Every structure is written in structure tokens, then in C-alpha cells.
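Field guide to reading this record: the first block holds the primary sequence, the second block holds the structure written as C-alpha cells, and the final block holds curator observations. Each block starts with its own label. This record concerns CARDB domain-containing protein, catalogued under organism marine sediment metagenome.

BLOCK 1 — SEQUENCE
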Amino acid sequence: LTVNPTQVEPGEAVTVAVHVANTGGTEGIYTLILKINGVKEADRTVSIAAGGMEIVTFSVTKEDPARYSVTVDGLSGSFTVVAPTIVVEPAVFSVSNLSIQPAEVTTGEEVTIDVALTNTGGTEGSYTLVLKVNGVKEADRTVIIAAGDTLNLIFPVTKEAAGSYTVTVDGLSGSFTVVEPAVVTNWPLLGGTIGGVIVIGLLVFWLIFIRRRRA
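BLOCK 2 — STRUCTURE
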């Protein structure tokens, strides 16, 4: 009696083979009974000539993980059904689509930094994004993302000093510029002020001129 293979996953076939020999002097018919765990699983009737031998096979399939005993007319063996090994991929993260808006602001105005974080792995996981400005940590954000999901993370940044700033988030980079606010000249007010000064100056000049003539 042979059982092959001796270990399978649910639904996989096991072949049970047994040699049947006719040691008598005439052809005969013989019925083999296969039992699994003591319960009849199948039978097979064969006709074998005198002195002949035949290999009889049975195919057995089981769905439940367990050890199964096999018997065929006093011969015995066994096989085991094991649960399939499930390989779960760990969480794998990728960062993309770094956006910096607007690219130029005045001192004290807010810049919005937006980045997409995707979990391309097979399980939920947590990840910490670190935002650096000019190589110095500005902020960080830890999030939990389900397998296959994408989150957009937003970092607001405000700078008071004018200059060019480099932004990096997990290997992605960009920049923004901070400029001093433009000086706005109020020409109507300035013109009115100058005009008023001129009028006052003319009046003073006229008064002085009149006094001198009277003197």
C-alpha cells in the first residue's frame, strides 16, 4: 500500500495504490474496499488471471485539515491535510504628488504644502511623514492607512523672513519664495498733500508781500 503525497492542502488529491496478486490456479474476481478513518470511502472490483498481479489506485480528496488513516484489506497508511499558508504582504508606503501653493508669497502669508501618501502593501499600517524646510524639520504627521488607500496630507507653512525656501518630504522636493510686501504709493493723497503745501506757501508769500507793501 502506498499513499502519495502524504501531505496536501484542502482540495488536493491523494493517490492510494495497492498491489493485488492472484496466487491461485485460475482467474478470479476480487473487490478491494478503501476506508478512510474506518469509514468506507470507495471500492474497486478487478479480475486477475492466475498468477497475475494488478495495481489498483484510488483518488481521495479531503477539504478539512486533519490527519487521515487509510486502510485497504488490512494494509494501512495515512496522509495529512494542512491549511494553506497565507502570505500577507506587509504595508508598503510611497509618497507622490508634492504640491506647493502658491510658489511666491509675501512675508507672513501662508504656503500650503500638499503630498499624497499611498499604502501599496497588503495590510494596514502607520507611517510618519516629515516635512523639512531648508533641511530643518518643520512638521511631521503620523497616519494609519488601509491597504491600497491613498491620503492627501496638507502642511501649512508661514515664514516672516524674505528669501527662497527649499521643501523636502521623504525624498520629494520643491521650493517657494517669500518677498517683502510692495510699498504702495497713494498718489491721490500724495498729490493732495503737495497741492496743499503749495497753496499754503503761496498764501504765506502773498501775506508777506502785502505787509511789505503797506510798510
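BLOCK 3 — OBSERVATIONS
Residues 192 and 198 are 10 Å apart (CA to CA).
The radius of gyration is 46 Å.
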